[in-house]
Design a protein that fits this description.
Blueprint (H helix, E strand, L loop, with lengths): L21 H8 L11 E6 L5 H14 L4 E6 H9 L5 E6 L3 E6 L4 E4 L4 H4 L5 H14 L4 H10 L4 H9 L4 H6 L12 H19 L8 E5 L1 H5 L1 H10 L3 E6 L3 H10 L1
Parallel strand pairs: 1-2, 3-6, 6-7
Antiparallel strand pairs: 3-4, 4-5
């Protein structure tokens, strides 16, 4: 951003200090436009931040590339809250590859659920839905017509899936890709049950503990946007008020930083 407007935009793969290797982080930064290295202020929002260790790792990576910049680090929940709520209170949920939620008081997070990550948590996420589809497919528990379509969408053998899950980088992203299979198939009873069960688990694990429950629930992430109608239905079923649902918080963040 420059002079109150956006002067350039670039998309990279994600960075998470818990999973990303240092050489991979350097490679990501090296894809950025060369002139960006002279930036004076960096606002970095991401998963894996909030802990002392995670922040130190990310601070080191950013300082190495942006040597003249002041660096502000916040986790992805703050990004979502600033984007979707701005200065108004609300409950903020992330449903993408992973999942998380918090309560926002209009300025700060005052109640954070603290996600357990994709192995122990991430209910309602692309990972949880994709894992369900993959397991059902290889166990032979998908309806025949759905299994046939899934084999074309996700054309991997059992051995390839296990190798990607246990030996390749970012297994959560690989598995979460399978969740997109359901787009356009939500009316099928099996697909609907998988997604609604995942959303119910997310609501029970993350949202029902927040008080007061009359606050609007704002959602961001690829899964929230792809299955917005089913998400609204489940939120309403638990007596929750649906606020904004958007795939990407970036535009809202840009507006936030124009005004703050």
């Amino acid at each position: 951003m420059e002079n109150g407007g956006v002067s350039g935009q670039h998309t990279t793969s994600g960075l998470n200090p818990n999973y990303t290797q240092p050489n991979d982080a350097v490679a990501v930064f090296n894809t950025l436009p060369a002139e960006w290295k002279t930036a004076h202020q960096i606002y970095f929002y991401g998963s894996g931040l909030g802990s002392k260790a995670g922040n130190q790792i990310m601070q080191g990576w950013l300082s190495q590339h942006f040597q003249d910049a002041a660096i502000a680090l916040e986790n992805d929940l703050v990004a979502a809250a600033r984007s979707l709520c701005a200065n108004q209170p609300g409950i903020v949920a992330i449903l993408g590859t992973g999942s998380n939620a918090c309560r926002w008081d209009g300025a700060t997070i005052d109640d954070d659920q603290h996600s357990l990550g994709y192995i122990l948590g991430d209910e309602g996420s692309g990972f949880s839905i994709g894992k369900h589809f993959i397991a059902d497919y290889f166990y032979g528990q998908m309806p025949d017509e759905i299994a046939k379509a899934f084999s074309l969408y996700f054309p991997y053998t059992r051995e390839e899936v296990l190798a990607a899950t246990y030996h390749a980088p970012a297994p959560n992203r690989f598995i979460a890709n399978a969740a997109r299979f359901a787009v356009g198939r939500e009316t099928h009873l099996y697909i609907r049950q998988v997604i609604t069960t995942a959303f119910q688990a997310f609501i029970k694990a993350y949202l029902l503990r927040f008080k007061p429950l009359h606050l609007p629930v704002h959602c961001t992430g690829s899964i929230a946007a792809a299955y917005a109608d089913l998400l609204r239905e489940q939120l309403s079923g638990f007596g929750l008020v649906t606020g904004n649902i958007m795939a990407d918080p970036l535009n809202g963040l840009i507006e936030y930083h124009k005004n703050n």
